[in-house]
Amino acid sequence: MAGTINKEVCGYPLSIFFIVVNEFCERFSYYGMRAVLVLYFKYFLRWDDDLATSIYHTFVALCYLTPILGAIVADSWLGKFKTIIYLSIVYAIGQVAMAVSAIHDITDTDRDGTPDNMTFHVVLSMVGLFLIALGTGGIKPCVAAFGGDQFSDHQDRQRRTFFSVFYLCINGGSLLSTIITPILRAQDCGIHSQQKCYSLAFGVPAALMLVALVVFIVGSGMYYKAEPQGNIMLDVCKCIGFAIKNRYRHRSNQYPKRQHWMDWAEEKYDKLLIAQIKMVLKVLFLYIPLPMFWTLFDQKGSRWTLQATTMNGYFGSLVIQPDQMQTVNPILILTLVPIMDSVIYPLINKCGLNFTPLKRMTVGMLLAAIAFVCAALVQIEIDVSRKQLLYLFISSSHFYFFFLNLIFRKHCPPSHQHPRTDDITSKPQEGNNAIRFVNGMKTAVNVSIPAANFGLIEPFSYSNYSLIKNGKVTFTLWSGSQSCEYSTDFGFGSSYTFFIPSTLVFGPNCQESITAAEDIKPNSVHMALQIPQYFFITAGEVMFSVTGLEFSYSQAPSNMKAVLQAGWLFTVAIGNFIVLIVAELAKLPKQWAEYVLFASLLVAVCFIFSIMAYFYTYIDPAEIEAQFKKNVNEDDEDNKHKLQKTEVEMNKRDSIKCHDEDDKDKQTKM
Ligand SMILES: C[C@H](N)C(=O)N[C@@H](CCCCN)C(=O)O
Question: Rounded to whole angstroms, how far apart are CA atoms 279 and 533?
Answer without folding.
Answer: 36
